[in-house]
Specification:
Layout lengths: L2 E5 L11 H10 L3 E8 L5 E3 L11 H4 L13 H5 L5 H6 L12 H4 L10 H10 L4 E5 L10 H13 L6 E5 L2 H10 L4 E6 L16 E5 L5 H9 L3 E5 L4 H9 L4 E4 L2 H4 L8
Parallel strand pairs: 1-2, 1-9, 2-4, 4-5, 5-6, 6-7, 7-8, 8-9
Antiparallel strand pairs: 2-3
The protein binds SN-glycerol-3-phosphate and calcium ion.
The site of calcium ion has 3 residues, from strand 2.
Length: 270
Amino acid sequence: MAQVIAHRGARSLAPENTLLAADLAYKTGADLWETDVSLTRDGRLVLFHDETLLRCTNAASRFPSNPSYRVRDFDLKALLALDAGSFFVETDPFSQISLKAIPRTVFSEYRHCVIPTLEQGLEFTMKKQWKINLELKYFPEDETGFFVPDKTLEVIEQMGILPDRVVISSFNHGWLERVIDKKPQIEVQALIGENDTDPLDFGDFRYSTYNINAKPVDDGIIKKLKDLGKKVNLFTVNNKAEFDHYASLGVDGMFTDFPQLFCSGTTIFT
Ligand code: G3P
Ligand code: CA
């Protein structure tokens, strides 16, 4: 059976990458959750996907004269003061509010959602005895060397989460090599195909697991990787027929915004 990997938490039900989205994903019964690790100006790590704060927070209205809204141009304290949930109610990104899949009493609280720190994400995962996939976000003009993988490993160590409850993934394969060198007990997964039109380049096929963009992938590529003995995860699969098809090809896991479609967990909204 293919693993269900909750993409940015249960991103269709709650603001992505928040602890609430993680909690709802856990309640669906997903096998693990995926989240994005980004660097702040003052060298802390937070769970946030985009390079800028504009889509998912109120940074523009809260700091109207800021010259930049990039996450890395904000200190942690300022980031933690942002509303990271109202965007979900205002834009209803997966139409789950208009389809009445989320109770009003639940989504009316989303304005209180904040950006979590990496420490909080790990603490949540440990408390639930669950598993987390940390995608180390890399923005090409960043000149931070190995700071992000090194700091991630430092926080993992400090928090005391067991290595088998953490996966580290990245499009930056140099960072994965760093993780392998420093902490070989932690599983790494190589992301392939950041943009839907990127050619899928597996290099020398050195990694045991490839997390591949589901848009450009085809059955032949999956079969080849499976014949080579690789573990294959696909992002992002939100459709049941697609999920079943890939599962029949031996795909090991699928990142989905809708873990509630593929799992039969406990009641999500109590
Ligand atoms: O880790 C899989 C997937 O999350 C990679 O793409 O853009 O959703 O972070 P993205
Ligand atoms: Ca991601």
